[in-house]
Design a protein that fits this description.
The structure is a homodimer.
Chain A lengths: L5 H13 L4 E6 L7 H14 L3 E7 L1 H10 L8 E5 L10 H7 L4 H10 L5 E4 L3 H12 L9 E8 L2 E6 L9 H19 L5 E5 L10 H11 L4 E6 L3 H4 L6 E3 L2 H27 L2 H20 L8 E4 L4 E4 L6 H16 L2 H18 L1
Parallel strand pairs in A: 1-2, 1-4, 2-3, 4-11, 6-9, 7-8, 7-9
Antiparallel strand pairs in A: 5-6, 5-10, 10-11
Helix pairs in contact in A: 1-12, 2-3, 2-12, 4-6, 5-6, 7-8, 7-13
Chain lengths: ~350, ~350
């Protein structure tokens, strides 16, 4: 059993960065629950760990500058500020953000990607507004009908990539097929795998199981060049019997599954904490067990899995969790660094073109 | 915050049973991964803890009798054997089971409910075959289009009831509404709640979120007499910000969410075990922390949540997990005891009739 722990994953990401070429990432400095208080320190840490990285902090100069002044000056030469007068709030409707916030930090950060001034954009802002803005500004990749959100989850085998995590509330079989093509290229590039194992999320592993859309998608995948391994069930997201590198599903199911897992992990964490907080004896035991509990926590720390990529657009946008702290936001920036370095968007685009050409000649 | 732990839940279930009237449950003795090796010892334990309980073991006498002989004789006077010559295998297709296995332990156990000889049936057999057989034998409740599977999940608030967990791969808004009506009656009866909080599973809490089916179901629920609290997200299944007693979703999403939670719990369990097994020191710490870890494990032990009820049929069928051990199968039988005692089927039927009558006069 090939095991890749979180630390191994991060170590390999960091090893990649050492030999990286110059890259520029625009940061929506105002996005997320904590805004610049998190995005700025995280940005400086990323500059420190990757000497080839340049960052553009997009947001209100009057807010960004005082915070930057409090930070160490080191590495700030690779940091520029790009003023944006507006800010998209966390509960703003995507259509309103698109219409009324043309100078928002989010919009301007994405504009920089469109204009070739940044290789990717990272934002912890409102997901709906970020997706709508990214789609409007960057445009869809030719051949792809809908964008999808992809991220990783820790699993007993290391980790699993999953899409769509919520961009689409209902999908056709063709949409699911397109998600698989895109996700497969991302996994190939990021993990260095030649033939990622691709599974389709369903409520059973037998052929007869599932709804029409999943059954039709299975046929498309069976007839494709992908290493399609068949249906997988919900438990495969974290702990299936066989390793699967990429799990494809529609955004409704994917989003519910992701949040169910978050809820389960939270509940289990609370329960574990309660068990160790019951009385003076259990608290003493907690003290003794602290190093073990710490290493356990680190392995499944959701902050080390932060960052979801929007696929299907003509440019790279990474969404960080809104509640991300510094470590979590660093993970999201590092994900952007890896995907830029691995040329994920170009590879997906080339593959989509190839699949389309094959279909036309078929 | 009202907290109901697993133990509190089981204690309250057991307290109910003490004042129970005579009830008879048919057991599919051959069902599940372990068959009579699990179902028989579990049955005897249930007879021991509830003096008003009578059980009918349905299955192959030639297999059941020798196992019964190895068990203590006590309480066996309330146990009868009903011979059934066939057995539905775990991977048999529902249609084949229905057509070719008319004398299966599963079918005969359900027949006993139809014929009024048992108040409920418990089976750990093949879910698809059990549902198809139960639907064929017991018939649908008038006014209900489709059966649904309901069970409980541990949550930070105690536990949450969820349906549908996999009976239906796609549902209309009307189906979801019917599930809510049925689930609400079950929760009222089993939990003794007057106005259970009912949530609809979605990918966000805002009105604009979700697919058409969920949005339409929300309108039906808003206009109903139910205590509908709105959309809830996947994390609410285990650890939402507010307590919700009943979560309604379609069977595809519900099944994926349930299995995702199972997978996450398994992965976290494996990770915790690994952390404590790393070396001689961590193993020593595990020894010291053993009582705490044991109490933690007990709180989220899936065996204490085993048992799902089929709703929408004219009779009570409880599905146990196929891999249930003795403790898990006991939990499933005890769930049947509680639902019989609380007259869940009759209450649901009366409520469905009432809602239908209201609609006709509207």
């Amino acid at each position: 059993m090939q095991r890749r722990t979180t630390m191994a994953r991060l170590t390999s990401i960091r090893a990649e960065l050492v030999v990286s070429v110059s890259l520029t990432i625009s940061i929506d400095a105002m996005g997320g629950d904590y805004g610049p208080q998190v995005t700025i320190p995280a940005s400086l840490d990323c500059l420190k760990s990757n000497p080839d990285l340049k960052l553009i902090l997009v947001g209100d100069e009057a807010i960004i500058n005082p915070i930057l002044l409090q930070q160490p000056l080191q590495h700030q030469d690779r940091l520029t500020i790009h003023h944006a007068s507006q800010c998209v709030t966390m509960d703003e409707s995507p259509s309103k953000a698109l219409k009324n916030k043309k100078d928002s930090s989010m919009r301007v950060a994405i504009n920089l990607v469109r204009d070739g001034l940044a290789d990717a954009c990272v934002s912890a802002g409102n997901t709906g507004a970020l997706m709508a803005t990214a789609r409007f500004v960057l445009k869809m990749m030719p051949g792809i009908d809908r964008p999808a959100i992809i991220s990783t989850l820790p699993s007993t085998f290391g980790h699993t990539h999953v899409l769509d995590l919520g961009a689409n509330v209902d999908c056709t079989a063709e949409h699911l097929f397109q998600f698989a093509i895109m996700g497969n290229e991302l996994v190939k590039a990021v993990e260095g795998l030649e033939n990622p194992k691709v599974g389709l999320l369903n409520i059973g592993e037998e052929d007869m199981k599932g709804n029409e859309q999943v059954k039709s998608a299975a046929k498309l995948l069976e007839n494709s060049a992908l290493n399609y391994i068949g249906y997988v069930e919900g438990n495969s997201l974290n702990a299936g019997n066989i390793k699967v590198d990429l799990i494809v599903t529609d955004g409704f199911v994917g989003n519910v599954a992701l949040k169910s897992i978050e809820g389960a992990a939270k509940m289990i964490g609370v329960t574990l904490k309660e068990a160790f907080s019951k009385n003076i004896f259990t608290k003493l035991i907690a003290l003794i067990a602290y190093p073990v509990l710490k290493s356990f926590k680190k392995r499944i720390d959701p902050r080390l899995y932060n960052g979801a990529s929007f696929l299907g657009l003509q440019g790279l946008v990474i969404k960080s969790h809104g509640g991300a702290d510094k470590l979590a936001f660093i993970t999201a920036i590092q994900l952007a660094e890896v995907e830029v370095k691995k040329d994920v968007i170009k590879k997906i685009s080339a593959q989509v073109e190839k699949v389309l050409a094959l279909r036309e000649t078929a």
